[in-house]
Amino acid sequence: MNSNQTSKSQNSKIFKPMPPKKSGQFLLLGLLWLLFCIPVITIGAATCSVFYVALKILNNDEDVNVWKSFIKGIKENFLQGFLMFLLSIITIGAAAAYIWWVLERSSQGILLVCLAIGISFVVLVFNIFTYPIIGRYKNTFANILRNAVALAFTFGKQTLRVTIFTIAELAIAGVLFKLNLFAGLASLLFWPSLIFYTISSFMADIFYKVENPVKYEDEAEESSNEIEGETVEDTVNDTVNDTVNDTEENQNNENNNQDEEIES
Fold first, then answer.
1. % of the chain with per-residue pLDDT over 70
2. Max Cα-Cα span within the chain
3. Structural domains in the chain (count)
4. Spatial separation of the C-alpha atoms in residues 64 and 97, rounded to whole Å
5. Domain boundaries, position 86
6. What mean pLDDT, rounded, does the chain reach?
7. Where does residue 189 fall: left (phi above 0), alpha (psi -120 to 50 degrees), or beta otherwise?
8. Which residues touch 136 (CB under 8 Å, ≥6 apart)?
9. Statement: residue 47 has pLDDT above 70
10. pLDDT per position as a tens digit, 118-155
11. What is the pLDDT at residue 102?
């Protein structure tokens, strides 16, 4: 995403009402994601591509062609999306196995149950942050994972809120499937779109603060005395530098691509 698009972003409240056009774009995004999840191998790239397009929509980019942008996002993020999908399988699978083990030995005490809940929460947060970062920025896979952890810890309140909202939406979807299979299947027409919109809204707000560090630092200055140590401050600075550099690199790449298209 380029700097011009960033300038259009607004540090406004989450979940502001969307015009019908944007609502339709998010519904189409959810359906495209379901379609491209059928081959399984493309699930990771499709998820990254959803956020690639969703963030453009929320940043008020003009004339966003959902289909073309989605396909472009698939191509650009296929490898990293596939690697992230494998990592998601490993982390979610390990968390699920541990939860099953704890439930089988629930008599051993509440500590193991709390630990299982904590591990599941961390795994969910990690996955919530990583896919949007891949969709928005070009970086090495290792740096993407590092930035996901850094942003999650730096923006603790937003992390907690987006995770709670996502858990609630996933729980409601699970209840629908349990109550009535037909109702659950019908909810697939809009439920993925709702979840992606929720995550994208929070992530757009976080990315705005990272890409506009001067404004963010002015807002954060009031509470700086409450933050101890240099670790968080250094993390914010490093993350800002990484993401801003990524944004500038994307600007140059997209400008070069546009020049090539014009010449052809």
1. 73
2. 70
3. 1
4. 41
5. 19-237
6. 81
7. alpha
8. 1, 51, 52, 55, 203, 207, 246
9. yes
10. 999 999 999 999 999 999 999 999 999 999 999 999 99
11. 79
Is residue 81 in a domain? Answer: yes
Q: What is the CA radius of gyration of the chain?
A: 19
> Residue 33 is which amino acid?
W
**At residue 219, does pLDDT exceed 80?**
no
Could you tell me which residues come within 8 angstroms of residue 252 by beta carbon, excluding any fewer than 6 positions away? none
The answer to whether residue 38 sits within a structural domain is: yes
Asked whether the beta carbons of 49 and 73 are under 8 A apart, the reply is yes
242 within a domain of the structure (yes/no): no
Alpha-carbon distance of 5 to 90, in angstroms, equals 35
Contact 74, 35 (CB under 8 A): no
pLDDT category at 117 given cuts 50, 70, 90 is: confident
Dihedrals phi, psi of 230, to nearest 5 degrees: -100, -5
The amino acid at 94:
A
**249 in any annotated domain:** no
Distance CA 29, CA 38 (A): 15
CB 132 within 8 A of CB 200: yes
pLDDT at 154: 95
Separation CA 49–CA 132 (nearest Å): 9
